[in-house]
Amino acid sequence: MESISSECTPLKEEYEKCFNKWYSEKFLKGDKEDACKELFIKYRKCISSTLESTGLSKTINNARPHIGSGFTEENK
Amino acid sequence: MKFFETSYSFNSSWDATTLACWRKYPNDKTPHVKHVEILSRELDPTTGILKTERLIIVSQNVPRIITKMVGAQEQAYVLEYSEVDPSSKTLTLRSTNLTMKNFLAVTEHITYTPLESDPEKTIFKQNAVLSADGMMSRFATLIEDYSLKVFKANAIVGKLGFEQVLERILSEQRAQVPL
């Protein structure tokens, strides 16, 4: 699926491909090491400026406790 | 305030069904879902639980009168937080809308667990609360009724899209198993 920043779509696809394979073949079998972390960081960095331009970061922070998320700005 | 609740079982293992959650979009049944971005993801090394936060961007399909009342917005944003516990085989997803919140707040809670008597089946449970508390009461009921209708319609197409993706996963897996 296209990323909100179209230039990040290849990075997103590369990461998701890695994740889906890791999820089925490693994670569900008990592996506790995230093998796709590097690709995630690259993809996440790519979309960060577009995400910021939505102006939603405060709203996201406020919404987090309502859905049980312990994530913060720092550990994205 | 309006409530929505549903549950059903999929004829597929929990492993395959939860993979379909990650691969659900795009599918041709839910063209209103434009983008799904992964905001955060973390694997807890002690518990083995995978935590994910996603931002879902949906094109609005609300009547003109409503967009005029609340200020037109082309896209709606939804925040979703999920936890996958592979040892207890539980996937929990919670989500809430980020846009038009003063107008209508929707929170949704979904779980996927294996059917105890048959691990080749997966139980899906969904419930949602819709509330237009910020609105004057006579509008609130109207908005909630309308939104519940939209929510139900989206739940139906969402399930169709999900099943399409799940079927693709199952046929890939069948192809991998030597006969």
TrEMBL record, chain A:
Transmembrane regions listed in the UniProt entry: none
MF GO annotations: phosphatidic acid transfer activity
GO cellular component: cytosol; mitochondrial intermembrane space; nucleus
Residues forming coiled coils: none
Keyword Signal: no
InterPro entries found in the cross-reference section: MDM35_apoptosis
GO biological process: phospholipid translocation
PROSITE patterns named in the record: CHCH
rRNA-binding found in the keyword field: no
This protein's UniProt keywords: Disulfide bond
Recorded superkingdom: Eukaryota
Family the UniProt entry places it in: Belongs to the TRIAP1/MDM35 family.
PANTHER family: TP53-REGULATED INHIBITOR OF APOPTOSIS 1
Protein name from the UniProt record: Mitochondrial distribution and morphology protein 35
Organism name: Smittium megazygosporum
From TrEMBL, chain B:
GO cellular component, one term: mitochondrial intermembrane space
Boundaries of every PRELI/MSF1 domain copy: 1-174
InterPro entries linked: PRELI/MSF1_dom, Slowmo/Ups
Pfam families: PRELI
Domain of life: Eukaryota
Protein name, per record: PRELI/MSF1 domain-containing protein
Organism of derivation: Smittium megazygosporum
Organism lineage: Eukaryota, Fungi, Fungi incertae sedis, Zoopagomycota, Kickxellomycotina
